[in-house]
Amino acid sequence: MAKKTADPVQSIRERLRQAAGASGLTQEEIGVKMGLTEKDARKAVSRLLNPGITYDPRLSTLLKFADAIEKKLSDLI
């Protein structure tokens, strides 16, 4: 039986989730720091981190996320 290759997108999402948790910030706080409104912040960050959602974020979104949690994007991907 062939060895199943890890999905690189899911691997990145897992690292983003771990970094978000380690930041001590809520999804809403991260979203607000990304420049989103309080109304949209939690939903947008949840969509970024949720492995069950098909979502291909822009590089600018990933950069804002990394900045919001005070990490370099290269450390997350």
Task: Characterise the protein shown here.
The protein is globular, with a radius of gyration of 13 Å. The protein is mostly helical. It has a single domain (8-76), classed as 434 Repressor (Amino-terminal Domain) (Orthogonal Bundle). The protein contains five helices and no strands. The N and C termini lie far apart (29 Å). 64% of the residues lie in helices and 0% in strands. The mean pLDDT is 89.
Summary?
The chain has 77 residues and is an all-alpha fold.
What spatial form do the alpha-carbon principal axes imply? globular
What value does the average pLDDT take? 89
What is the highest CATH level, the class? Mainly Alpha
The assigned CATH architecture is Orthogonal Bundle
Integer count of domains: 1
Report the CATH superfamily: lambda repressor-like DNA-binding domains
Helix and strand topology:
Blueprint: H1 8-23, H2 27-33, H3 38-49, H4 59-68, H5 73-76
Helix pairs in contact: 2-3, 2-4
Features:
single chain; 77 residues; mainly alpha; 434 Repressor (Amino-terminal Domain); 5 helices
